[in-house]
Amino acid sequence: MKVYRLVHAFSFLLLFAILVSAQDIPNSQDHLIISRYPGQSIRGYDVKEFDQYNLVLSVNKTGAPEKVKKLEGKVTRIYYRNPPGRSTLEVFRNFEEGLRRGGAQILFSCAASACGTPIRWTRVNGIRDMGGLIHNRYVAARAIKDGAEVFVSVFVGGQSTAIDVVELKPMEAGLVTVNADALAAGIDAEGHIAVYAILFDTGQSTLKPESQAAIAEIAKLLKNRPSLKLFVVGHTDSTGGLEANMRLSRERAAAVTQSLISDHAIAATRLSPQGVGPLSPVASNATEEGRGKNRRVDLVAQ
Hints:
This protein has helices spanning 2-21, 88-101, 118-125, 180-190, 212-224, 242-264, 288-294; strands at residues 41-56, 68-81, 105-111, 137-145, 148-156, 160-168, 192-195, 230-235, 271-277, 296-301. By secondary structure, the chain is an alpha+beta fold. It has 2 domains: 24-168, no CATH class; 180-301, CATH 3.30.1330.60.
């Protein structure tokens, strides 16, 4: 009778796990580098082929992320609903053990109040409160997949688990071109136009090589319109300190201006580099998508 009950109980749990998995939202799946905890179901799923991600590696005394590693590459975000009857500790330790068993290097972990305040995490990397501060547990790890670095963060709450996987890789460039005629049309209609094809490394003001096509089109615009003068205005998102962002935006605008002068023989008197940092956003800085829209160079007719 005891054996029958054990077999029956096991069959019930297996059936329950299958049913929960069947409740995954459409077009979602586990990441190949890390599986789910048995009985979890996917309630949120998002994949960006190239994006920026801030990996939290320490928390200060105020409850805010302190040391953050900025990553760029393919970002997969999966939100799981935790199965009933399983503690946060049990779910978390299984994930942590799985990472170690797979050869990952644990970079940082924390639990409960040592993980800080969830709302402050949201501002850094979008992690949300998932069941109360006392239940929160987090681990960040580094692994190697097919010779490339992969970073994993697992945030386990009382009700849900968030897994973020960042596969480091360069952005696929050259997909969008800037046309001098389109720049002219935007300036004629609005008095300014945002250019997103001028690229810099995070926190740097040196132009990336793939920016040259856009700068050449700006030069073409200026040559087609000899009387046109421009404010070249650098913008940043709100990540980091205000003064640092103000300085960075000015330096980026100056880099664009200098390239137009040195590489395309545009008179310096026709260009005025300016920087406003995060003070003129076009989208919310609460999401990476919004921050991406805020990082730009504006051409403003003088």
